[in-house]
Amino acid sequence: MSVLAAASLALGATSPPAPVFASSVDVARVSGRVQVTVPGGAATTLTASVQIPVGSTVNADAGAVRVTAADGSGGTYSGQFKQGSFQVLQSATGGGATEIRLVGKCVNASSATAAAADGPSAGTARPRHKPTVYRELVISANGEFDVVGADVSAVASGQAQYSLVDQCNGTHVIAQNGQVTAQSRNTGSYTLKPHQSLIQHCQPSGPIAQHCTLLLSSPKSSVFSFGLYLKQGTASSFKVCYRTPKGATLCHTAPLAPLGAAPTVSEGGGLTCIVNDGPGVYPVRWLVAGHQIGTTLQFKATQPIDVFLGRDSCSGYTINP
Fold first, then answer.
1. Among 161, 163, 159, which residue's Cα sits nearest to residue 171?
2. Residue 115 contacts residue 294 (beta carbons within 8 Å)
3. pLDDT tens digits, 171-182
């Protein structure tokens, strides 16, 4: 940390020096209470614009902060972040992007592994524990910021506002304005438009997951997609079962296919469905050979039943990690 940066942080100077690519960023409190912890230092309450070294942690759980970073080409860019804590990272080989990595640990690990009894019926499937939000962030930024959660990272396409929420049952990305690309090493990338959302749950969490389930929701069009990744799989298909608000259980089957070039043991597949059973919350499970994979998730439908759509219809798709 430079002498000027240290003085800026300690005294609350209003005009920090320009950020240095892959070395420092400038941060400014927008509202509420914001704290900054530089590597090896103690938490300091942010009262004005300051420069902090890359690797610092920002706590905006009760406030909002603006981060300004250098782009590696002589320019800068800014984004606003609120309602969460994160570490700011920037690599000289990262193409100018800044990584915003959420910090915090799941405090309700049992909910991540809780599964209902095996079997094709989702009628008895209920989450055993209420999913715990253990870290989240509301972002208003452009594509220069890569926001990293437990199972998914998110990058805006242009300027966008979105949320990334880590629960003990997976990472949720919700688009409010603009377009956001949610990226996973295991199940590929998905572009979210306003009011669309994605949940991905991997076990164990991260890039070496043994399995991942994915739920992509477009409630305004009554379209919902369900993906499955298995690191070691020999099955030819999987089943998605969800329970409607009226208590009916509907199950649909989708194929599983090998991922990557041979020899490979991983496989994946997906199913996109038009759900025409009315508004409400739908518990959903993924099953292979009658055994549930992962935890029970939920999606929310908002549209009334459309008599012209008829019964729910689904079609398979291929996962391209």
1. 163
2. yes
3. 999 999 999 999
Residue 23 neighbours by CB distance under 10 Å: 16
pTM, rounded to two decimals: 0.87
Nearest to 139 by CA among 188, 192, 90: 192
Q: Which residues of 127-159 are buried (b: 16+ CB within 10 A; e: fewer)?
A: beeebbbbbbbbbbbebbbbbbbbbbbbbbeee
**Distance separating the N- and C-terminal Cα atoms of the chain:** 39
Q: Where do we find the tokens 């509907």?
A: 250
CB 216 within 8 A of CB 198: yes
Please report, as a single letter, which amino acid is at residue 193: K
Q: pLDDT (tens digit, 9 = 90+) per residue, 150-167?
A: 999 999 999 999 999 999
Residue with tokens 């002589």: 74
183: Cβ contacts below 8 Å, ≥ 6 apart: 152, 153, 154, 155, 189
Phi/psi class of residue 289: alpha, beta or left (left: φ > 0; alpha: ψ in -120 to 50)?
left
Answer whether 51's CB lies under 8 Å from 16's CB.
yes
What confidence tens digit (pLDDT) does each residue in 10-65 have? 445 568 999 999 999 999 999 999 999 999 999 999 998 999 999 999 999 999 99
Q: Which two tokens stand for residue 102?
A: 């959420």
What's the rounded Cα separation, in Å, for the pair 144 and 98? 6
Rounded to the nearest angstrom, the gap between the alpha carbon of residue 107 and the centroid of all alpha carbons in its chain is 18
